[in-house]
User: Fold this.
Amino acid sequence: MSTVKIFVEGIADEKFLLDYIEHILPESAIKNYTIINAEGWGINKKTQQIMQRNTDEGGVNLVVFDADIDFEDKKKEIEKWKTDFHLSFELFLFPNNRDNGTLENLLEEIIPEKNRPISDCWEGYEKCLKSKTIEGREKPLTTPAKKTKIYGYLEALLGDSKREKVKIKEKERDYGNIDHWDLGAAYLNPLKEFLVQQLRTR
Amino acid sequence: MAHLEQLKITNFRGFDSLEIDGLSKVNLFVGKNNSGKTSILEALFLMSGMPYTDLPSVINSFRGFGEAEDALKYLFHNMSYRNKPSFYGKFGDGSERWLDLEAIFQPRKNLTIISAPQISGIKFLFSFKNSSLQEPEKSSLIYDNNHFSLNFDASGGSHRALNASFISADKNETEMRAVLANIMIRKEEGTIIKMLQDAFGDAIIGIRVVSNDVYFDMKDIGELVPVNIMGEGVKRFLNIISVVLEKPAISIESGAEWLKVDPVINSKAFVCIDEIENGLHYSAHKNLWKELLSAVLQSDIQLFITTHNIEVLSSLKTVLEEDFTSMQNDVMVFDIAKTKKAGYKSYRFSYDALQDVIENETEIRD
Assistant:
């Protein structure tokens, strides 16, 4: 039976945390844990029951969600679940438990130095879009989401074959691949501290 | 008829206390062995008011009744008579039922020898309240374990009961006979035969009750075949569907005008089914679920079912997806557990979490 349950919003977060936890803590020093996909940022009845049961069994719940556009607002809203639904959990908001943003903002920051040129190309693309107008269209063009940038980043690195291309999908990414991601980056320190504190066996 | 929505159990068998909220039309209780699932069904049945003055099925089905002298003590939490079991039920129409149990002791034969009191029976203290009553209606029944009798405690008033059935995990024959006879009297055995044929093939073409035993009329066999020699699965299936379809007239014995079965005498309120899967091959599960869900759709019956079989849950999910989509909101699963920090708890999961419950049961098994 798990003693730590980590609740995330989606499959991308799940895969990232799986790979990252493996990177920061050896198997021998880690508590039993399960990552649970809450399928969205809300707290539905099912998730409430799972969380409650875990607490009743002496386990610890971790909620690792996105801060999105307002870190303080999101933090306040989620902390309110403790009183509204009688739940007990520790909270961390991507990207770094301090700033607005999402998992993808964190991923952007852990692109290895040698791959920065790919990121620069993307910024060029975004600048270019902002500068263009389309005949008959009043609204400015939308800047693609960060998610798209990450997809584009991986697509540029991975080869043409089907087998390579499947690794772009969120579920199949290998965050331990040092040619794609720097899991030792200082930007990850807040997340690292949070996870080590909760998951390391004493 | 209003459904039971909330159940509270105190001091009954292994439970110091357990609260279950959000009960629905079809309620499944899952959880490890010894988590108290059978006790929940027993609590529901006892709380219904036990309208039957004839007790064979209760005595045969309930652990402790009709057994060795002091087996009744296991009704009391930690086997202490000071821990009086009590039950509370709240219904969808706002009505409430309470039941408290008290031990009745053998009179001491020899007053000079000090010995532990011997339990000889149980006093059932019922209360009922609805919006039309200013004060709760009270009544009591006395169960005498020496004579296996259940009698109204002659203090006047009336005893209000719900029409309830309890199908134990393993004693199929005992329950079937009277129930089947009743179905045949109403000329409804054709429905039962069709259900058996859908589940097990068309070899079964009839069903008879002869001299208190149940027989099948099988295709290509010249004599009736006693149900006893059929497989456990067929017996189990037959037992469950016949009890669920039963519409018994509660026989009011002369002098038993005190008994009110509420609200409509032929309408079954609860059916409790313990370990529904016993003896049944998984291929029969879907058919059984279809028949049970049909019965719930057509009547006001409320089902309370225990299982620890993953195929039972999977087949229910399939049937709800394919054939009974309108009933998805009428099915609840309650995971019962004795937790490390919070004692006995129930965790409620609706249809959309059924897959998670199935996966979790698989996880526990692994």
Observations:
- The interface with chain B takes residues 1, 45-46, 49-50, 52-53, 55-58 of chain A (CB under 8 Å).
